[in-house]
């Protein structure tokens, strides 16, 4: 019997279904199976299926001939790891399938999501010591740059979610980019019967300080802060009024902060949010348009211990081309057999 025919269950794969859903990316070491409960919470709220995806990142050079026995052993071990992940959480009402892909990890994740009509990707974020100074590894950074749909980034420190979200936070800065996440946040809030918390941080305006500030300078800065605080409250109240008419529980918070990023991160964590929904872009998009996400989103994704559901900018240019030619296997979920 050949090495390939020894494992027919791994090779007789039905075609991949099309449609939106949750794609939870599990690595081969089984270390980030902790993201599955978060993917399950999102899938349950949105009433969509989950796919557990593992990418076997091997040597794809044309001069290398893979060992069929080794390949099948790797695939079987990957299947066991995914099966353990699915079995760790009981989710009888949620359809869960398993997929294996082979190739560069980030490229295969993005390709898979595009083939499934732009589903939502769920990625784990390790601790800062493992991920480097940015708090995000190379795969996370690349997927965030290329994924056409939302990305749920789950930090390793995140608490295990309850059956349903209780509080969802949306940071707003007055830009249409930040407001573009509201339809998704409203859908999640309504489905989970959660509280929607709209937050805004009024930054301290910068002033050139070539010399010590005069009394008049300080008055001018204080006057500008008070003006911006009033504008922020009016802005949030207007959005709250529009959303409350649909029966949602909406609350607004506007605070002052010297560093908007740190103030937002601290606020999201102090308020006990289960999830933060934010745009990859804000006001800074008009100044820095050649990066996939802004400085505030980047900081929150790297530092906040609350899961971040990040939506890409609607004005993003065409996706980076990805090489064709991959080997994907679709497998049945063993725990449901």
Short description:
This protein has 337 residues and is an alpha/beta fold. It has helices at residues 36-46, 68-87, 105-115, 128-131, 138-146, 176-179, 182-192, 215-244, 260-270, 295-303; strands at 22-25, 50-56, 96-102, 120-125, 151-155, 167-171, 195-203, 249-257, 275-279, 308-311, 327-331.
CATH class of the largest domain: Alpha Beta
CATH fold assignment of the largest domain: Rossmann fold
Indicate the radius of gyration in whole angstroms.
22 Å
Straight-line N-to-C gap:
26 Å
Structural class: alpha/beta
Low-confidence stretches: 1-19, 129-134, 314-337
Spatial strand arrangement across the major sheet: 8-7-6-9-10-5-4-1-2-3-11
In CATH terms, the superfamily of the largest domain is: HUPs
- The total count of helices amounts to 10
Largest sheet: 11 strands, mixed
β-strand amount = 15-25%
Helix content: 25-40%
Mean pLDDT, rounded to whole units? 76
Count of the separate structural domains: 2
Query: What is the helix/strand order?
Result: EHEHEHEHHEEHHEHEHEHEE
Notes on the structure:
It is a single chain. The protein has an eleven-stranded mixed beta sheet with strand order 8-7-6-9-10-5-4-1-2-3-11, with helices on both faces. It has helices at residues 36-46, 68-87, 105-115, 128-131, 138-146, 176-179, 182-192, 215-244, 260-270, 295-303; strands spanning 22-25, 50-56, 96-102, 120-125, 151-155, 167-171, 195-203, 249-257, 275-279, 308-311, 327-331. The chain has two domains: 16-148 and 319-336, HUPs (Rossmann fold); 167-303, Rossmann fold (3-Layer(aba) Sandwich), CATH 3.40.50. With 337 residues, it is of the alpha/beta class. Strand 9, helix 10 (295-303) and strand 10 (308-311) form a beta-alpha-beta unit. Helix 3 (105-115) runs parallel beside helix 5 (138-146) and helix 9 packs across helix 10 (295-303). The longest helix is centred in the last third of the chain and has 30 residues, at 215-244. Residues 1-19, 129-134 and 314-337 have low confidence and may be disordered. The radius of gyration is 22 Å and the shape is elongated. The relative contact order is 0.16.
